[in-house]
Design goal:
385 residues, Rossmann fold, 2 domains, 9-stranded mixed β-sheet, 6-stranded parallel β-sheet, 19% strand
Length: 385
């Protein structure tokens, strides 16, 4: 049986295996920004969840343009033990990949189901979301997260609320909120051609971009569009975990589907304001939306519902306005008065304090520190044998 369609043979160096629940080709998120930077120092393999298909067991590898190797297990439909099949593919890959150190990096605790037998030099958990609060979360997720905390040398959290929730569960928890690719989104501050699929939409436009799932308050979208028929609501992004037929429909609501990360500035450059109509529920209690600084870098006045991290990190300084069902339409109209030099200066001052480069530098220093400590412990144990 063909267990691996491709074998990666790296020069001896540190292999970083990143286990994630997010498809690499879905939308550009925190893992992309961090793993592409990690690939400058390590051989990074981004291990996706398995895909069911009609062929034999195989591991499909492909190269990201920024140096990350994306690994996707392909498992036959109806396989009697998918977990074992994925574990076998993982073992075969690790055995054939030349490396002198192994770092495991987890975005999902559920990956322990096929990887808990590995003995890495360092194990890390980048907790970017409270996955147990998401729709369709496995019952065993909390138990697996406890196991992952026990194994990890350090825990990173994607925001302030997550940090407060996790800080007492481990001796080394670091608050490293999602950052900003400022240069990319700054493009939206200059005139750009209007993308063809929104060029026909009148102005003023209020836009949202991101994953559309249980975290979006669809009732708020519907109600606000009714209260503000003079505004055009442009919403781009993939729809997941909710029935697309349940998306509110109106003459001034425009669902444009998924867009490439590279094309986002062109859309934002032709909006007059941004909004984040998040539901206030268990799924959003701990989120720290990456799109908040992205909207601001684009120079768009932004209104959000009262997501705790948005309130604490951006609304408290006046960079983001907060609205609810009663006030959202009014707040959005006020935001259309436009940006001013003072507001933009405040935005740039805050955004200058963060970047994905800086976030990765902090993580990298932590990784090298815990790796050195682990090596010293191992050497000491060997010396005492």
């Amino acid at each position: 049986m063909n267990k691996s369609s491709t074998v990666a043979r790296f020069e001896p160096a540190t292999l970083m295996l990143c286990f994630s629940h997010l498809r690499w080709d879905f939308v550009v998120q925190r893992p992309h920004h961090l793993m592409r930077r990690a690939a400058k120092s390590y051989h990074v393999v981004y291990w996706e969840e398995a895909v069911r298909h009609d062929g034999p067991e195989s591991l499909v590898l492909r190269d990201d343009a920024f140096g990350v190797v994306v690994a996707t297990p392909h498992i036959p439909h109806g396989h009697p033990d998918e977990r074992r099949a994925v574990r076998d593919l993982l073992d075969s890959f690790v055995a054939r990949t030349l490396h002198d150190r192994l770092i495991t990096w987890y975005y999902t605790p559920m990956a322990l189901g096929f990887s808990d037998h590995l003995v890495p030099d360092v194990c890390l958990y980048d907790c970017m979301d409270e996955l147990s609060a998401f729709k369709f979360a496995p019952d065993s997720l909390g138990w697996n997260e406890d196991r992952l905390f026990d194994r990890s040398a350090a825990i990173f959290t994607g925001g302030r609320s997550l940090y407060e929730a996790k800080r007492n569960r481990h001796a080394h928890v670091h608050c490293l909120p999602s950052s900003i690719d400022a240069a990319h989104f700054h493009k939206a501050r200059s005139p750009m051609p209007d993308p063809a699929d929104q060029a026909h939409i009148p102005t003023p436009r209020v836009g949202f971009f991101g994953v559309i799932d249980e975290r979006m308050d669809l009732d708020l979208v519907r109600q606000t569009a009714q209260q503000a028929p003079d505004l055009q609501f442009v919403i781009i992004g993939p729809v997941t975990k909710i029935d697309p037929h349940h998306l509110p429909q109106a003459a001034n609501i425009h669902w444009l589907g998924s867009k490439r990360y590279e094309d986002l500035p062109a859309y934002l450059a032709n909006w007059q304001a941004g909004w984040m109509p998040f539901a206030l529920n268990d799924a959003t209690r701990f989120i720290s939306p990456t799109k908040t600084p992205e909207f601001l870098a684009a120079g768009l006045p932004l209104t959000s519902t009262a997501v705790p991290d948005v309130v604490a990190d951006y609304a408290a300084t006046g960079l983001v306005e907060i609205g609810d069902a009663a006030s959202m339409a009014i707040a959005l109209r006020q935001s259309l008065r436009g940006r001013n030099a003072r507001w933009l200066a405040g935005v740039d001052e805050v955004l200058a304090q963060t970047s994905w480069d800086r976030t990765w530098a902090q993580m990298h220093a932590c990784i090298e520190g815990v790796t050195a400590a682990s090596t010293l412990r191992q050497d000491g144990d060997f010396a005492n044998v």
